[in-house]
Write a structure and sequence with these properties.
With about 500 residues, the protein is α+β, with helices and mostly antiparallel strands. It contains 15 helices and 22 strands. The structure holds flavin-adenine dinucleotide (FAD).
Length: about 500
């Protein structure tokens, strides 16, 4: 993937658009230059756009619409793309109309929920964006401890509803992330080591397939699709609703974070890897190497104890024994408040580059080599606002067999993520290059497995390799449900005929 391709093409395609007004008062461009599924140039007739607009309850935005500029933005500002059309769906019928239109006109089509795709998959240049952000209903059944969530919901929508009745989902750590993208790729969250990832808590999905059918998939119906959506990403269609298992959890959560100096980095990493092997399932644990805007390096070890508060201190204090502590922060708050604590730090509109991969149990000579590689490169190649972050996996995630769902990483003990970010585009080329080189140093330790929701620059071979023993089944499923590869802006699994 070329990060800057969008800047160039943003300047083409829409400059000559003629603005006209329709009875509904919405300004719209005339015939539009578009890109087809295979990347060819084409023109979309104004009359076809008008017919499509009329078939939708929600608006269909073109570059001439006032709301267009906001609607085309996604979280990672690196991807400054200008779609031809943004279909803002407000119902399943709208999603169906949008899929039919995209398919009938052979349009390059992206699907957007929370817009957090780090690699920019939810927006496309001169194609169609099927925007699900108007599908935000949450129906909770407190007695059954389940929740039905529309395909455009954000994590915070569900967290708030569940917490109100003493329940919790296992979703991720920034509340404005989309349930759609997060769940379909796996879904890591603070409760994952006790209750599994988001995929492990999906009970049912309704999927709008490329041929316009609404298919229900659960343990009894369309089991193949039920298997595939739990880790296979957006490959098989648009999930218009998910049903999740919730868990009783309304404890206050204690979080403690310890800062260590750069000189202690290797020692702290050694202690982290040792402790990771014996940490309780209640612990959400991260270790980050960071470099601030002044170029200073620090190491942070943070843990949240997701269990009975009276046991929190005994576990969390261990994290302060990894080296010479330079600073400590601790706090206790309700789970829903904790779930929003990173919302501002993880805000929309900044420029990011990140690479990530899965690691198994790290011990013996591998441990020393990985630590040296991680720390030495980080110290020797200064790049401001850069990070290397280790996140503890394992626990309940690894008690699920690797072929039970499409999500394949059931022996991973850590997710490692390296990258950098900034507030402006200027300077980003340097950290993109830095991130790629850093990844070359770390990647050999991963065995090629990575979290598809953090994919970046990952080509077809790597995506296929990532799914390991689940690949053949995924290819068969893709061939069955999306033989023309209409849903291709994702960690794409090609159908048989296209391989
Ligand atoms: C700030 C931030 C915090 C994050 N924190 C976590 C975390 O704690 N845990 C974690 O596991 N991941 C996390 N991620 C990664 C996250 O899981 C992915 O970025 C994910 O793709 C986001 O989903 P989205 O719906 O917001 O993204 P979008 O960009 O809207 O969608 C991404 C892709 O998902 C697919 N998709 C989305 N919705 C649907 C749907 N309803 N039907 C079919 N396909 C769909 C499409 O292929 C789309 O291209 C985080 C990312 C960011 C930027």
């Amino acid at each position: 993937m070329q990060l800057n391709i969008n800047r160039r093409s943003a300047l083409t395609g829409t400059a000559a658009a003629v603005t006209i007004s329709f009875a509904g008062g919405r300004a719209r461009a005339a015939d539009l230059p578009v890109v087809t599924l295979d990347g060819a140039e084409a023109t979309l007739r104004d009359a076809d756009i008008a017919t499509f607009s009329k078939s939708m309850t929600g608006p269909v935005l073109t570059p001439a619409d006032a709301d267009y500029n906001n609607a085309r933005k996604i979280w990672n500002a690196m991807f400054e793309r200008r779609p031809a059309l943004i279909a803002k769906c407000t119902s399943v019928e709208d999603v169906k109309a949008a899929v039919s239109f995209g398919r009938d006109h052979n349009l390059l089509t992206a699907v957007k929920c929370g817009g957090h795709s780090i690699s920019g998959q939810s927006v496309c240049e001169r194609g169609l964006v099927i925007d699900l952000t108007g599908l935000r209903s949450v129906e909770l059944d407190a007695k059954a401890r389940t929740v039905r969530v529309a395909g455009g919901c954000l994590l915070g929508d569900v967290d708030a509803a569940a917490y109100a009745v003493g329940l919790a989902s296992t979703f991720g750590v920034v509340s404005h992330t989309g349930v759609g993208g997060l769940t379909l790729g796996g879904g890591m969250g603070r409760l994952q080591r006790q209750f599994g990832m988001a995929v492990d808590n999906v009970l049912e999905v309704q999927v709008l397939t490329a041929d316009g059918r609404l298919v229900t998939a659960n343990k009894d119906q369309n089991q193949d699709l039920y298997w595939g959506v739990r880790g296979g990403g957006g490959n098989f269609g648009i999930v218009t609703s998910f049903k999740f298992q919730l868990h009783p959890f309304d404890s206050a959560v204690t979080t403690t974070s310890f800062n260590y100096g750069a000189n202690d980095a290797k020692q702290v990493l050694r202690a982290y890897f040792d402790y990771a092997n014996i940490a309780p399932d209640e612990l959400w644990l991260t270790l980050g190497l960071g470099r601030n805007g002044k170029g200073e390096v620090g190491v942070n070890v943070s843990g949240s104890y997701m269990g009975s508060p009276d046991k929190a201190d005994a576990t969390l204090k261990t994290l302060g024994t990894f080296g010479s502590v330079k600073g400590k922060r601790t706090g206790t708050m309700p789970y829903v408040a904790l779930q929003k604590i990173a919302d501002v730090g993880g805000r929309h509109g900044r420029y990011h580059y990140a690479k990530s991969g899965m690691l198994g149990t790290i011990e013996g000579p591998t441990r020393a080599k990985l630590i040296d590689a991680t720390v030495d490169y980080f110290m020797d190649q200064p790049q401001n606002n850069s990070h290397a972050l280790f996140l503890l996996m394992g626990g309940a995630i690894n008690r699920v067999p690797a072929d039970a769902t499409a999500y394949p990483h059931r022996t991973a003990m850590h997710n490692v993520d390296v990258g950098a970010d900034g507030d402006v585009r200027e300077g980003s080329d340097a950290y993109v290059q830095w991130g790629r080189k850093y990844w070359d140093v770390i990647d050999p330790f991963t065995g090629g497995g990575f979290y598809i929701n953090s994919a970046m620059d990952d080509g077809e071979k790597r995506v296929r390799g990532n799914f390991g023993g689940n690949l053949d089944r995924l290819v068969a499923l893709k061939t069955k449900y999306d033989p023309s590869n209409f849903f291709r802006l994702n960690a794409n699994i090609k159908p048989m005929a296209k391989i």
